[in-house]
Amino acid sequence: QAFFCLLLCIPWGSSCPPSCQCTERAGAKAVLCSSQHLVEIPKDIPKDAVFLKLDANSITRIPSNAFRHLSHLEELDLSRNAIEKIDRAAFKGVAAGLRTLDLSSNRIRNIPKEALLALNAKLRLANNPWHCECALQEVLWEARLDPDSVQDITCHTAPREEYVGKPLLQVLDAGVNFCSVRQRTTDVAMFITMFGWFTMVIVYVICYVRHNREDTCKHVEYLKSLPSTQGHAE
Q: Residues of the signal sequence (predicted)?
């Protein structure tokens, strides 16, 4: 009876995922799931977790609302995984309280700026095969990056070959603006579209005028072919 009473008295929120260890660190719950061959984020992480280590696993994606129930979370380590995709709402629910977020040493090429710009956490994004583009530039400008890892954010691919292999910060310091390149591309596309519509309107007007002129000529010829009033009178 005492055993069953003990089971009933244990709150569900204090349970620990089978592949993790849950400990107390300075009075706060730490959930340690490092090097456990995980391919996805565990569903049963305790709600009162403050520190969560998921590093050195095989996680490939961070889905929307993955940590939404962890309202006390302050430190999140997702480094040394195989993360390729991060959904826009991946950190929804924890953005305000999160202090550090480690995404270094993954396979991230690009990331929706909405996923990171709402965060107040210090970010580590180093050692990923980044595609240098406007969204990444905006993250670099707006997010709180760990200064010790900024130089390791390098361009694995880029719009121009000369930027490949260089630290993104160095490329931006040289005066490159990936967002202005995108804006120019958009402006050119809009100009081409407007020119196409203008051409169609001009062609339509020309065809309309020509068609009316032909109808007028036919009508005049028809009138000329009719017997004149004077001819009838004679």
A: 1-22
